[in-house]
């Protein structure tokens, strides 16, 4: 823990253009002092909605392996990657510029490519008829031997980390510790893992060019593992002008965790999702985002501990799948565009 804290304290030594670094709390999942973890997390969620998680149980060696395998995929020829183009279930490859997260300020889509991996659901399972459920698509085993097994293992282990964080979040909101463990929540989650590769373009916010446009995440929480390239920025004053953007320092082996829009709705804005973006500096960058979402049919409505006569619910109840489907539709290129090019 002391080593991790030293790395955080030294974050400002990492070179970045016009650097201003945000100071984030660090949650140690191996700590026996759960009340301290709850206090640190609650403070982080009230301040920025971002925090670090360390000692989470996934070894640095295995994380390095996952990054290495991710790079192997993105180094494949475009034609090979397009063989596993994302489908209507949001599984598979997303090309550069496929996603447009901030249409009001971006002139093009994001200068990144990605690969979606979800919870595996057999074709004959009734659940597979719903959006976001189904079978994953995988590169051919002879092209990337062992790739699928590595990614499936990481997906499974990251879900356990997300559940551990959700336990602390529940306690911070004065709920039972296992509140988010219910079958309709993280018991049977949508849980989407996304490998990401950012090109070496230099972003220019004044010209609407970004590695990833400004956005808040959609679900409960996001776990982000990243390489050592400084590019992620957050904005804690999204409703003010001018907006102030601060860099988040990457820490090897740690997850950067942020809360999503659904948790903002659940908590009645006590915890707020935070705008963030990726500003490229001319270096390639790799990251792995793990989006922990509840089940498709989960009803997201104001928690009983987050409302009162003086503070009534600010959002109407909404079905998780309905909300997610609309957000994905709003930000991703229509698949028919690729069908036209391939026909």
From TrEMBL:
PANTHER family: 2-OXOGLUTARATE (2OG) AND FE(II)-DEPENDENT OXYGENASE SUPERFAMILY PROTEIN, OXIDOREDUCTASE, 2OG-FE II OXYGENASE FAMILY PROTEIN. The keyword Oxidoreductase applies. The lineage of its organism: Eukaryota, Viridiplantae, Streptophyta, Embryophyta, Tracheophyta. Belongs to the iron/ascorbate-dependent oxidoreductase family. This is Fe2OG dioxygenase domain-containing protein. Residues 189-294 form the Fe2OG dioxygenase domain. Keywords: Iron, Metal-binding, Oxidoreductase. Pfam families: 2OG-FeII_Oxy (PF03171), DIOX_N (PF14226). The keyword Mitochondrion does not apply. It comes from the Eukaryota.
